[in-house]
Amino acid sequence: MTVGGLGEDALVAAITQRLADAGPPAGVLLGPGDDAAVVAAPDGRVVATTDVLVEGRHFRRDWSSASDVGARAAAANLADVAAMGAVPTALLVGLAVPADCSLEWVLELADGLGEEASTAGAAVAGGDVVRSEVLSVSVTALGSLEGRSPVTRGGALPGDLVAVAGRLGWAAAGLAVLSRGFRSPRALVEAYRRPAPPYTEGPRASALGATAMVDVSDGLVRDLGHVAKSSGVGIGLTRAAFHVPQEFVDTARALSADPMHWLLGGGDDHALAACFPPEVDLPMAWSVVGRVEEGEGVLVDGQKWTGPTGWQAF
Amino acid sequence: MTVGGLGEDALVAAITQRLADAGPPAGVLLGPGDDAAVVAAPDGRVVATTDVLVEGRHFRRDWSSASDVGARAAAANLADVAAMGAVPTALLVGLAVPADCSLEWVLELADGLGEEASTAGAAVAGGDVVRSEVLSVSVTALGSLEGRSPVTRGGALPGDLVAVAGRLGWAAAGLAVLSRGFRSPRALVEAYRRPAPPYTEGPRASALGATAMVDVSDGLVRDLGHVAKSSGVGIGLTRAAFHVPQEFVDTARALSADPMHWLLGGGDDHALAACFPPEVDLPMAWSVVGRVEEGEGVLVDGQKWTGPTGWQAF
Question: Which residue ranges make up each domain of chain A?
Fold first, then answer.
């Protein structure tokens, strides 16, 4: 059955039912079905962020399942919440869908959104479904700072360590594989299809005293460039500090690609990059990859990075 | 200049600058420019709602200015917040825009969003801009219940009065005028282009003890149908209780239309409809148009409504 064969009310009811099967959401005080949702904001503040994913630009239905698209749309936003040092609480979803899209595809998208929200401790609290010639998914994520100050991009200080939690370059490598018409190595393709952001490391970094933090969505060099600019500092990365997985080496050879381009220029894994005072004892999940310095911009082994710098929307 | 000629960072910077010109937002603790915004939620809860507007389905660039489109996208969501009895605090905006769209159009859209947010006491706190073949605007509105319980669709009781605040049918009449290729009466066309929801009446109705409330976005009969269903009651409307403006009579005659269809079936004005205990002394802004009864569905003068029942997305 296509969504065009259903009325709006029936479609919304089907999605709401599917999401309700995921179980009761802890921080959602009033869920889908009214004019608006009500979400807990225990410390009197709410963190909020929005991202839009458009078919053909951010995903392809032949490369990702509906559930993967939903999970990825959720992850992109949940990671932004984590990057403020906050714990995700709720998602709102605006879905624009062609009339010939199947109901099953939309329900599986809802599954993916709900699953990823649940992984991060959140739930889908509400949304809107409209018809459009182009399929797009707009997600807003909300989160709680649990009494802490938000960790912005603007607090890095010279002398701070720069560290990363989560995978870097895996999604970019997977995308490169898919773009060449391959379906393996499976681990890379799966990393592209379903990112695994280190959600709990955001609040943890905040509690450890992180001075600045960012979600790596556009590539490490570019995203750290935002930190450098906002903080009025330079950032020096050390190439040798990055572990290059064997899958990267093998796949890069097969595709005549440079694995460092994936590591430093690839987005979509939604790793977290943060700056910490040098005396901080970092947990295992964090790898030190550089230092904050006086100056501006991001250098790799003292040189300007000449590889790709990630995603450009326009 | 088209947005396709700008990088993403430059486009976001231009929009953020334009919004910043609107002045400092009261409830926005951290505005655009980081991974996420931080918005005040003074009573430990946040009201949140999302709507998506798609070009060709929800607006046309030849019928509405960019500023009007922005204002209408904001109003649709701000009214949903008010319909919970909450005061709007912030908007997040996801904009999908074709590369050939002019920068000026996008900046004027931001103006409209900011102006309408400001009218409701809120501000734009963040957003995302992506490229798409189809222009769409996804808005999430946040709001504060100020310690009150949310007014849902589910609390109406037999014997309650049904009352309406704000305009009914004006936008539908204006849309009918535009659809026939006319540009006047001006008052109707302007009502379509820029709705004026009675934002402050939402919290006021809540404080007066409203038992149920809804934003009239799809037409009064259809939206009250949601209240009847959620509350497990019937709603009886009285035709004679609706004032039919002279503009409606004249324009309906010219277009061979029925003005009651606009009043009872027209959405997009974002009036508020609420149920109140019969003893409540209603302020001037509210007109009683019917009663909550035992039963189900919505009747007009005891009859099933056979006119149009508003917008269907699919």
Answer: 3-144, 161-304
